[in-house]
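Progress against Task 2.4 (sequence-to-structure conversion) is shown through the following example record, which the project officer requested during the mid-term review.
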Amino acid sequence: MRLDVYLKASRLVLRRPLVKELCEAGKILVNDLTTKPGKDIRIGDRITVIRTNARIEVEVAALPSTKQVAKADASALYSVIRETSGDDELL
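Structure tokens generated for the chain above:
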């Protein structure tokens, strides 16, 4: 599954164009490497999304069978490894 589709389905990023912008800015990493929105994602990959005031690192736990995932089911697609907010120091 493509990275941009996965991030939208998991609701880690709400719009695919925003995934493209973040990738172009080097703010989305897959397995600690900058990437493109079309990168194929597999179970076990680590995805880091860096925003102005927050950073989240997750591990892909499941891939959805469709692009549309219910809001209640979205968090089952990943497990959070680390999450920091603007108040926390980003390491």
